[in-house]
Amino acid sequence: MHKDRFYTLTASCPDRVGIVARVSGFIAEHGGWMLESSYHADDMDGRYFMRIEIKADSLPFNLTELQQRFRPIATEFAMDWQMSDSAAQKRVVLLVSKQEHCLYDLLARWQSKELDIEIPCVISNHDDLRGFVEWHGIPFHHVPVTTDNKAAAYAEIARLFHEARGDTMVLARYMQILSPELCRAHPGRILNIHHSFLPSFVGAKPYHQAYQRGVKLIGATCHYVSEELDQGPIIEQDVIRIDHSDSVEDMVRYGKDIEKTVLARGLRYHLEDRVLVHGNKTVVFR
Amino acid sequence: MHKDRFYTLTASCPDRVGIVARVSGFIAEHGGWMLESSYHADDMDGRYFMRIEIKADSLPFNLTELQQRFRPIATEFAMDWQMSDSAAQKRVVLLVSKQEHCLYDLLARWQSKELDIEIPCVISNHDDLRGFVEWHGIPFHHVPVTTDNKAAAYAEIARLFHEARGDTMVLARYMQILSPELCRAHPGRILNIHHSFLPSFVGAKPYHQAYQRGVKLIGATCHYVSEELDQGPIIEQDVIRIDHSDSVEDMVRYGKDIEKTVLARGLRYHLEDRVLVHGNKTVVFR
Amino acid sequence: MHKDRFYTLTASCPDRVGIVARVSGFIAEHGGWMLESSYHADDMDGRYFMRIEIKADSLPFNLTELQQRFRPIATEFAMDWQMSDSAAQKRVVLLVSKQEHCLYDLLARWQSKELDIEIPCVISNHDDLRGFVEWHGIPFHHVPVTTDNKAAAYAEIARLFHEARGDTMVLARYMQILSPELCRAHPGRILNIHHSFLPSFVGAKPYHQAYQRGVKLIGATCHYVSEELDQGPIIEQDVIRIDHSDSVEDMVRYGKDIEKTVLARGLRYHLEDRVLVHGNKTVVFR
Amino acid sequence: MHKDRFYTLTASCPDRVGIVARVSGFIAEHGGWMLESSYHADDMDGRYFMRIEIKADSLPFNLTELQQRFRPIATEFAMDWQMSDSAAQKRVVLLVSKQEHCLYDLLARWQSKELDIEIPCVISNHDDLRGFVEWHGIPFHHVPVTTDNKAAAYAEIARLFHEARGDTMVLARYMQILSPELCRAHPGRILNIHHSFLPSFVGAKPYHQAYQRGVKLIGATCHYVSEELDQGPIIEQDVIRIDHSDSVEDMVRYGKDIEKTVLARGLRYHLEDRVLVHGNKTVVFR
Question: For site-directed labelling of B137, which of B92, C116, D239, D264 has its Cα 20 to 30 A away?
C-alpha cells in the first residue's frame, strides 16, 4: 500500500489494439502519476483486464471529475469499470459464530492499521464473542439463526448490513449458509473462508472428509459467495502438510492457521481492488 | 539411507500394551542395533504400526533366521509383517508414454545411485523414448495399446513384469488405464502419478478442469493403483502456486515439476518400505 | 494432543544396543500404554534421543513413583531425562513491546484452549497493550527499559518471572535484548521469534537487510535464547515468497504472518516437550 | 509462452509522468498488439521498469525497423533498453562437473521443447557426462581445471563460448569458481545455481554449514555471477523442509531437487527476458 492518497481504476473490456495507450495517454495528459499498473489479457475469452493506481495530488481535479472525464473512454472500449479513492475507508461487516481465530486475526490487523478499514459492526448467531468485539469499540449484533427463523434472520442481517452502509461482508467462519437472496443481492461483495482446498471437500465437515480420504495436505479457500454452496469465484487458497499421525482434531487446529491467513490475504486483495471477477473466476493483481 | 546393510521390519497389528517392548526386546536380546524406528497408533481403528531398521552385522544370524525367530512374536500379536534386506535391490519396471519428464528424472536418480534399484525394463505404448532408455543400457518394450487390443496388451505387460521379476511397477505418466485384473494382482505394488491434487480433478485433463474452476494452486498425487480410477491410497502430494495469467499450457508445464518430484518422493518412500497401507490410506514413516 | 491424561518421558543418552527394549520393557511391565513414541539416533555424535507418552491411568502408580522406579534405568544408561504430566499446565510469561500481532495470535489460541497453558502475566517495556491483556483477565506489568536502567529492568523481569512461577518465557516480538544473566539462568526456557530466516540477517532491521540483498523469500525463526544474539538453538522456521514490487513495509507486513505462525508452532513443540536440545541444535519430535 | 511470434521490449529509466503512455502510444500507433505487459516503479530509487510483448505480425515492419523507430523515445526517456525476437533461439552453453541432476533436468526440458533454446555445447572439467551429452547430439568439451592451469582453462572456456556464439552461460552445478575476467566480461549473462538459501552459507559445503547450524529448511539460489563469490543479483530461490533426522547426505539429496527446479525457473525467466538487473538486485516480471 502506498502512503500517498491515490485513486484506483479497475476495468475490463474486449481486447483490442490500443487500450493501454488510450488509458495511460488520458492519465498522462492530465499529469497523472501512475504508482502501480497491472494488465492481463485473457486469450481464451478475448478480454482485457487492468488495474491502475494514480497518485491523487498529481491530478488537477478530484475523483468525481476524473470519473466524468474517463467515461467517454470507458464507453468507447465497452468497459466494465470502477474507480476508488484510497482515502475512503471501506466499511466491512464481519459475520462470526463461536470460533474466534479469524476474528482475533482480523481485529489485530485492524487495530494495527494493517487493515485500514471501518468495521461498523460484527454480527453473530451466537453471543459468545460479544465482549471481545465490544472491547474494541465495535457494535455487536446477536442474530440467532434456527431452522424456523431463517428468513427473518437473513432479513435482519440484510437490514443491519444496509444500516451500517457496508461495502463488504466477511464470513469469518460463520457457520450458517446465507440465503440465496442475500447472495444474489451482493455479488462480489461477500467473502467466505471455506476450510478445504476447493473443489475438494465441499460442504460440511471437510476435515473429516480429508481424514477419510487420507490426503497429505489440507487447505483453505477464500471465495466470493454465490448462490451455489462453495462454488463462487476463488480469490485465494493455501495448504499445509499433514501426515498419518494427525487426527481430525489436529487437522482442525492446523487448518485454523491456514484459514485465517488465506482469509486475510483474500480480504486485502479485495479491499485494495485487486480482484476482478471474470465469470466464475478471478483475476487477482497482487 | 544408512550406508551399512540393514534389515527393515514393517508390521501392523491390533494395538495393546507391550508391542514395542516385545519387539525391541527380541531385537536387543540378539544384540540387534536399531538404526531407525518409527511407531504409530491409530486411535480410531485401534491398530498399531511400526517400522524398524536393524543393522545386519549386529545380528549373529541372517535374514532368513531372523524371520524364523520373529515369526512366533508376529503370530502372538497377530501382525501383518514383512522384513526386507537393504542389500537386495528392488526391481522396478517403469511404464511410460510419450512425455519424458518423469523418465529423465527417475533415470538421473538411478544413474547417480540416489535410487539404488534395478530397472529390468521400461515398457511403453509408444516407441518414442526407446533410444533414451536403451542408451542407459535398459531394455525397452513397445507394447501398443489400442481400443481393440487392450486385453492382449495388458496380458503382455503382466508377462513382461513377471519375466522381469518385477517388485514394483511405476506408471511414470503412462497415459493408459491399467486393467482391473492387473491392478488386483499387485495391490500396493503399482504406483501412479496423477496430475492433480486428489480428490480434486479425478480422471482426464485435470489441468483443464483446474483452469475452468479457477483454482490458485495446482498439484500432483502419487498413489497406489487400485481398481477404481484415481481412488487408491495416497502416498504423497504437493502443490504449486499459479495465477490468472497461467494458461492450461502453463499449468501443464508447472505441473511437470510437481509430478516428477512427487513421484520420486513417493517411490523412495515405497522402496525404503516406509509406506504401510491401511485400508484406503497410508502410514508413511518418513 | 491426546485427550486422556498422560506422562511424557523425554530422554537422551549415549547410543547402544537395548535402550528402547529396556525403556519400553519397563513401561510394559507395569501395564503402561504408550500413546506416542519417537526415537532418533544421531549417528555423528553417537547419541540417542527419545520421547514417549504414557497414558496415566494405565499405570498402577503416580508420576512421582514412576520417576522413582525409572531412575535406576536412567542411571544405567546415563540419561539426561525428564517426565512431565499433561494435567499440569505450564506457566508461560509473555514479553511484548508495541506490536500486537503475536500477542493477539497467542491469546486467541489460549482463549480457545488450543494452547492449554496458564499465562500468569504479560510484561512489556511499553504500556500500549495493557488494556487488551487485562481484558483477558491477565495481569500486565509495565517495565520500561532505558539505556540507564537496563540492569534494574532485567532484575525486575527476573523477579516477576520468579514470582509468577514461570516455566517458560516467550519473547513475542519483545524489542529488547535480554541480559546475559537472564539468558544464562533459563537455558532452553526462553523462546524468541526472530524476524528473519536465520542465520541470514542477524540483529537489527532484518527486513531492511533482506530488501538490500534482494532475496526472493523472507522468513522467521523461533529459537531458544542464548547469550549470543540470535545464535541459540533453532526450533522452527518458515518463509514466504516476496518479489521486487515489495517494499520494506510490505515485507514487515508479510513477515508478521510468518512470525506469529512460526512462534506458535515452536511454542507448541516446546510446551508438549517435543524439543530436545542437543548442543546448539534441536531434535523436534513433531 | 505465447505461440505467436512476438518481440519483447525490456526497458528501465528514471521514473516520471507519461512513460507508459508514450511507449504504449507508440506501439498502438503502428497497430502493435500487446500480448503481455508488466511495469514496476522503484519508489526508493525513482526508477521505472517495464517489459512488453508485442505480437510480431501485428506490426507493419520488422524488429530492426521497430528498434529504429523506438530509439528516439528511448533517448527522450534515457532508457536502458533492449528488444528481442521470440523466433531467435537463444544459444545457451552449459557448464557441468560430475553431478548430473541439473544436466538431466535441463536436457529433458530442452528435448521436450519446454526450453526453446539452442545448446551449442556443454563444457565440463570432467569427462564423465560426455556420453549422455553426445547422445543428445550436443558437442561436449572437456576442459580440465587444475590449480596450475586455471588461467589457460578459463581462456579456453571463454574461447569456446565465443566460438559457440553463446548468449548465456549456465553453471549447472559446475564446481569451479570462474575467473574475475570471465565474470566481468559477461555481466547478467552467466547464471549459477548455489546450493543454499543465500545469503546464508556462502562458499563451500553449504549443506555442512546448514547441518552445523541446525536450520529447519534448506534452499537453493539462482543468481547472476559477479566477481564476488555468491554475491551476484538473485533471480530465484526456494527452500525445502528438513528435520533433525536428516544427515548431510540427506540434505544433499533433497537439495538436488530444489537446485534443479530453482535453476530451471531462473533460467526460464532469464531466457524470456523477464529479469532486469537493478544494481545488485533483480526485477523479475513473472
Answer: D264
